[in-house]
Amino acid sequence: MTAHFPIAPKQKLQRAHGVLNISAQQDVGGVSRLKNLRQQGSYRAIFPRTISGNVEAVIINTAGGVTGGDNFSTTAVAHENAGLSLTTQAAERIYRAPDKTAGLMKTSLSVQKDAQMYWLPQETILFDGSRLKRRLDVDLHANAKFLMVEPLVFGREASGETLRSGALNDRVCIAIDAQPIYLDRIKLDGDIASQLGRTAIANGARAMANIVMVDPNAKPLLDQVRALLPACAGASLLGDTTLVVRILAADSFVLRTAIVPILTLLTNNAVPKNWRL
Amino acid sequence: MATGARIAMNTAIAPMTTDVLTLSQLLSPSFPVGAFAYSHGLETAINDGLIEDADSLQDWLLALLEQGSLRADAVLLNAAYGSADPLIDASARAFASSSERLMETDLQGAAFCETVLAVWGHDLGRLCYPVAVGGIAAKLDLDVELATAMYLQATLGNLIAAAMRLVPLGQVDGQKVQAALKPFCTEIAAQLRDATLDDLHNAAWMSDIVAMQHETQYSRIFRS
Fold first, then answer.
1. Does the distance separating the beta carbons of B91 and A183 come in below 8 Å?
2. What is the pTM of this model?
3. How many domains does chain B have?
4. What CATH number did the domain enclosing B65 receive?
5. Which of A150, A182, A199, A237 to mutate to test the interface with B (most CBs of B within 10 A)?
6. Which of A12, B96, B181, B193 lies deepest, with the highest CB count within 10 Å?
7. What's one GO-annotated cellular component (chain B) (predicted)?
């Protein structure tokens, strides 16, 4: 009397993917221009007019977020003497992964001789049950300038969203001529909110950002950056040219309030408009 | 039979005993790396009231062991034991989260390498501290799991000694914290056997922040 039911075929989940390739070069008149643009899948870029002289790209994820199994890839190059600024149109939401597969976000940036790049995405918000694997690889020429921020928000407690489960595997590597000069790696699993409660980890904070600037003129900026820091933050200099800042904040808004004045200083008042408070 | 078993057991134990003696020399507070001068940011954490007694000190150190800089050191030690790739030392430097953290690992490592060269004749070059310890453990063919556990225990001992100078924490309380953390040293050393650079990560951001803030702390007795 054993009934044989056909096993339902495993439903294939809809996966989003996006590919974005952007490069900027300097034209004969000394102005930075878009050289190449390739956009595929759920990634788009728009280029608002700016007065900074940099090519400013705003990345849009038309899928509206990232979930398990999604695959997003960004490649950007600032060719010799060019200036390229990249940001995102909105905070990136990382939604619950329906199975145990992580969403993948891979970014490769290259800044050539005497070129400058800003990598200033808005917040990445991890929702309960989200799984994200992220890689940011930055390859710099010894005479290149680079500024980045990566704000991470762990759940949204104001909306009752606590990060009780999830996985984050994040790596930032900045190298000059293939030699790593800055390496940051985060691996958090399980009840992330509880882990953030530990004093030496985040002392209960739910938002964190690191800011890194590689610039021959970084050293004199250290004291100015320190003067802008909130209580739960620190700044330091690695070597003479790498300025690092780490900020912990109660939530996304408090974090943003701390970040904007620092970026305003470090970009010489050229923070992308969508970053404004 | 019984005699044979005893002989076999003795030959199995003997190299391990030698390893323990070598490692306890290399990692002893009298080994001239100047470990006593560094608080790893504890001086600021204590100044700010984040650590105020034995319990909060133990919590703080356990977080560093499980998810922070001490775990990262153990990974680097194991990676350096398994390979002499210069990328390991370069990664250790790139992973240092602030200038005093870099100074701590660079200067202790340099002093360690100099002493090892003078005493054992092994030229490791100039390596960060855990990378140097992993390097000499490989050259002297010491057990890496034992080396890792003893490195963690020695580093904790130094930090507990620093804390005892800064908070009202008695000698006995300090030893209680050290004893309570011992099982984690052995557990992490076992977990990280054969670890590679891919196992390197850190989430002890508050610890990193106080280490940065220490650079501008008004009154201080430690170099980090």
1. yes
2. 0.93
3. 1
4. 1.10.4190.10
5. A199
6. B96
7. cytoplasm
